[in-house]
Amino acid sequence: MINLLERLRSGEILVSDGAMGTMLFERGLKSGDCPEAMNLSNIDVLEDIARLYLDAGADLIQTNTFGGSPLKLASYSLSGAAPLINRNAVLAVKRAVSGRAYVSGSCGPCGKILKPYGDTDPEAVYESFEIQMQAFAESGCDVICIETMMDLNEMLLALKAAKEKAPGIPVMTTMTFEATPKGFYTIMGVTIEKAARALEEAGADVTGSNCGNGIENMIRIAREYRKHTALPLIIQSNAGLPLIEKGELVYPESPEFMAEKAKELVDAGVSIIGGCCGTGPAHIRAIRNSISTTGIR
Amino acid sequence: MELLEQISENLQNGFDEKVAALTKDAVEKQIHPKEILQNGLIAGMNVVSKKFKNHDIFLPDVLLAARAMNSAMEVLKPLLIKEGIPIRGKVVIGSVKDDLHDIGKNLVAILLKGAGFEVIDLGNDVPAEKFISTAMEENAHVIGMSALLTTTMPVMKKVVDLAKDEGLYGRVRIIVGGAPVSKEYALEIGADAYSYDGANAVETVESFFPVNS
């Protein structure tokens, strides 16, 4: 497969996949269970989900390893299984896509607050990410996506672990920002400018944002990133903030709406567009079609 | 008065050792513990809450201020108990059964402690019965519940129903929060209040207590 970064440099716009959680719940995950435990017991499900997103037109397929760092798995007493959990997830996606899409190793926050604000040692967080990154490297991930980070220090530790343990594998770094009347900030107070500069300097290959609250905010976030970095940008938006309708959780943004707005993301200079919470294969297919008509920038 | 202002300022800056030392000073100077709590610590924390709400400061600053508050409370708490001065209020808090997400709940616990409430944190995956039995044993004033998954939200209704069965309803106020929870849902299940974020949770709990208690 052609090197991902070369394709981005040539101006190509790629599509990544949508949410994982909903897909897992529809396929037997019980609430309160560890989503990554499926990687030990239900590997077929992982392949099914990867195929659905591949068929929808995704160029990058994420692994079910968002909570796959040992520190995060500790709340389910699964730390020791971290290497296997991450390895199985990568291999499952690899089998499903067999070279037709990039396998993107997902790495989310460790779930702890780092010293001095919380009680967790940065060294312990770094070591935990090292184990996950090593598993990504050994199982042959094409790219690593560190996502939903709110603490820049934690993000930098994960990035450093990736560069150390998975050298040569491109790393994408996305943070989650809230819209405030004073601009975009993570809950830990990180601005887009600060994130963009620090991550570029620390060697991120692609940067951007995921989750958030709706794709319209993501267009503003992408424009702000573009001002502060020359790196290729990735945006994986959720389908808006969930509403409750008749006791069910409903995400307001339709595939058509997000696909239309995705064109504005391209105009803002985004290279990879995908989904987060509330998006499924229908969203990805619509985005794919909308991007394809836009073509290469 | 100047000493209490120093306590407030240092608390706002998150200097925990300084705040503990100044609190000891204040106690030695015979300033009434309740005065230290109200006009030093809570006064400082109120400024922090307000700035947080206005996005002038962020979570890290709040966490440091709350830690400073806790360090001072270790000095003050025995004195307040000895004098029979009630703590601001007692809150039992937890994430509901089968819901293992706890960052939001932890933040609310930190902010409530910071605002001078006694917080009994039951952790994650807390069954409905446990909220009720703890509230009864501890004579709590408030039960706070968090859910991050729609599938776990029914536990909140169960707690409200159990509170009715046990005659706690109306005496113990019930507040709910979490990403999928809404004001409408809180109304529907009969909870007393819904909060959309940590700072709002503190304001809501404060509103349960008369000002000059």
Description:
Chain A has 297 residues and is α/β, with parallel strands linked by helices. Chain A has helices spanning 4-9, 21-25, 38-41, 43-56, 70-73, 82-97, 122-139, 152-165, 192-201, 215-228, 255-267, 281-294, and strands at residues 14-15, 60-62, 102-107, 143-149, 171-175, 178-180, 183-185, 206-211, 233-237, 243-245, 248-250, 270-275. Chain A has one domain: TIM Barrel. In chain A, the strands form three sheets. Chain A has an eight-stranded parallel beta sheet. A two-stranded antiparallel ribbon of chain A has the order 6-7. In chain A, strands 10-11 form a two-stranded antiparallel ribbon. In chain A, helix 10 (215-228) links the parallel strand 8 and strand 9. In chain A, helix 4 packs parallel to helix 12 (281-294) and helix 7 crosses helix 8. Chain A starts with a helix and ends with a helix. The model of chain A has no long low-confidence stretch (mean pLDDT 94). With 213 residues, chain B is α/β, with parallel strands linked by helices. Chain B has helices at 2-12, 16-28, 33-53, 59-82, 103-114, 128-137, 154-165, 183-189, 198-207; strands at 90-95, 118-121, 142-146, 173-177, 193-195. Chain B has a five-stranded parallel beta sheet, with helices on both faces. In chain B, strand 3 (142-146), helix 7 (154-165) and strand 4 (173-177) form a beta-alpha-beta unit. In chain B, helix 2 (16-28) packs parallel to helix 4 (59-82) and helix 4 (59-82) packs across helix 5. The model of chain B has no long low-confidence stretch (mean pLDDT 89). Chains A and B meet through loops of A and helix 4 of B.
The count of DSSP E runs of length 2 or more, i.e. the number of strands of chain B, is 5
User: Share of helix among residues of chain B?
Assistant: 55-70%
In helices, the fraction of residues of chain A equals: 40-55%
- Looking at the overall shape, the CATH architecture of chain A is Alpha-Beta Barrel
What is the alpha-carbon Rg of chain B in Å? 17 Å
Q: What kind of sheet is the major sheet of chain B?
A: 5 strands, parallel
The assembly state of the depicted protein chains is heterodimer
CATH class (first level) name of chain A: Alpha Beta
Number of strands of chain A: 12
- Strand and helix order of chain B: HHHHEHEHEHEHEH
List unreliable stretches of 5+ residues of chain B. Answer: none
Q: How much strand content do the residues of chain B show?
A: 5-15%
In whole angstroms, the N-to-C terminal distance of chain B is: 22 Å
* H/I helix tally of chain B: 9
Structure class of chain B: alpha/beta
Order of the strands making up the biggest sheet of chain B: 2-1-3-4-5
Number of separate structural domains of chain B: 2
Would you identify the regions of chain A where 5 or more consecutive residues have pLDDT less than 50? none
